[in-house]
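Handout, page 2. Input:
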Amino acid sequence: MLDILRSLLISLLTVTVLLPVVRYALRRISPGRRAAAMPADEYKYIQKQERKLMFFYYFFSCVLAVFCAGGLSLASSIVNMPSGDSLYLLTPNFQAMFAPGLLLGLILAFVPLRLVQKTLLGQEYDMYQTYLQQQEGQNSFKTYVLLLALLLGIAGVVTFFSLRWNLAIASDKLVLTNLLHEERTYNMTDIVSIRHLGKEGEYLIVLNDQTNINTAYLKPVNLDIIALLSQKSGRTVLR
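Output:
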């Protein structure tokens, strides 16, 4: 839970820092910078309205990030089908999928924000559009669409590779598929240590090539799986 809250906080800080940078770049290249300046009182008022929009954007981002992370976790179980000799197939859980889910949430949040923007601003909507043209130029919307399309493509690639990570456990071997869909097969005797991390279902499995498998990011990890690994590898679970 703390990792998720930390990720949300980092995303908020990232958006808060990057948005003025993007706006400054648009203002530098946009002909809208020559538009007549707004009165000072209207300028301050519309900035308050903009902060309200930022709050709703971040709200939509959080909701969509949680939804996307849960959906990706479910999709990973569907995409990765166990092979015939696999006893267990461990796929990424919600916590592991929260990073790509957050990326998707930050991008997709612009859609509901755009839909409710006129309702949120009410009579100030036209004033806000004037403010945007002054700050970012008349073609800023097209620029945002292109930028979001690029980010959505990047998010799609990240999501595609994140879905491929899984750990298949057979009676005598482990088959680890990494993010690049590269399969590595280990015998049970290749397990160097199994350490309990202090929480139920969370273990750190170390292999002989120094590969670490943290089951805190996999689902489901029950005692039967750990008992099988301990029995076949001859390693005692360390606490």
